[in-house]
Amino acid sequence: MESSVSFGVILAVLASLIIATNALVAMAVLPLIFKNDSISLCFTLNLAVADALLGLAISGLVTDQLSSPARPTEKTLCSLRMAFVTSSAAASVLTVMLIAFDRYLAIKWPLRYFQIMNGFVVGTCLAGLWLVSNIIGFLPLGIHGFQQTTYRGSCSFFAVFHPRFVLTLSCVGFFPALLLFVFFYCDILKIASTHSQQIRNTEHAGALAGAHRPPRTPSDLKAVRTVAILIGSFTLSWSPFLITGIVQVACQECRLYLVLEQYLWLLGVGNSLLNPLIYACWQKEVRQQFSQMALAMKKGLAACLLLLARDGGPEGHRESVRYITTMSHLEPEG
What confidence tens digit (pLDDT) does each residue in 166-199 have? Predict the structure, then answer.
């Protein structure tokens, strides 16, 4: 019982952090999309929405874990909950793939990028992404071989879904996606290396001719770094869960369900907490938007203090005016 309560507390904290951070990112990114007409930020917004939905989905499991005595859950309801969790996680992973592909196109064909990635293509990609994600999530409900034959009322992933489902996801989805990530990274690395060599040759020729050195552009290096972080976080978060699930299919006597559900599954879900930090806060314009939001909150607080100071006498009024004057001179962080 104590382990169930501890797991429920961890799940509640994780779900709250996932929802809060991704909601904050969505609030920051949405105005930037309308202001800058940025195509790539649409994928960042979709990632925040998918991760927030995942946090919402796992929050539905908290009540069952914290209830004392443990409250049994109907198998159909548990299956729907886990399908919602799986589809949200699949949407998050597929969005990460789209972000990596977007970075790849931007450096592979920079002159044709805005012709390829227009509004229609982005909308079609996102619609197809959510369709595929829901098919993946609700697939076990339509295939008997992916369902557990016995259910004891305690709702968890492997209580309703068979490890064969994880094996199928790994072979059809995870490992092909990982190979695709590695391909993107290697090709971007090759392009970046070629561009660096061209820049060095230009600088050398300019130095011989006595010309001014052209400035170095860090875009290639930034793209290599971004895709490397994409591969690393994606792999470290989900591979332990999926690989151990494959081991469970191969070795039915191993009984790895506890490790899978209370440790490795949480590690994979925790990727939705890393995503806002990696893919949103990494971008300068998003950080600037956060600064502007913080400044707006400070000014709002100053206005509230001014209203409260009207009943606090002349001294309180002077302090509030001094605070507002200080806030008005603050500028958002660049």
Answer: 999 888 888 888 888 888 878 877 887 776 677 6
CA–chain centroid gap for 152, Å, is: 33
How many CA atoms, within 13 angstroms, populate the side-chain half-sphere of residue 123? 3
Question: Do residues 55 and 91 make contact, with C-beta atoms less than 8 angstroms apart?
Answer: no
The number of beta carbons lying within 10 Å of the beta carbon of residue 7 is: 19
Residues 6+ apart with CB under 8 A from 59: 11, 12, 15, 16, 19
Tokens linked to 305: 């203090």
Q: Report CA dihedral (132, 133, 134, 139) to the nearest 10 degrees.
A: 80
**CB 289 within 8 Å of CB 32:** yes
- Interhelix angle 40-59/75-108, nearest 10 degrees: 160
Question: What does the DSSP assignment read for 116-158?
Answer: HS-HHHHHHHHHHHHHHHHHHHHHHHH-GGGB-S---S---HH
Cβ atoms < 10 Å from Cβ of 179: 10
How much is the pLDDT for 48? 92
- DSSP, collapsed to helix, strand or coil, labels residue 161 as strand
CA angle 314, 318, 324 (to 5 degrees): 145
Cα torsion for 120, 123, 127, 132, to the nearest 10°? 90
- Give every CB contact of residue 254 below 8 A, 6+ residues apart in sequence: 247, 248
Residues of the chain with pLDDT below 70 are 1-3, 67-71, 195-196, 199-201, 203-223, 279-281, 307, 309-334
- Percentages (nearest 5) of helix, strand, coil residues in the chain: 85, 0, 15
Sign of CA dihedral 43, 44, 47, 48: negative
Residue 72 DSSP label: P
Which two tokens mark 268?
């994979």
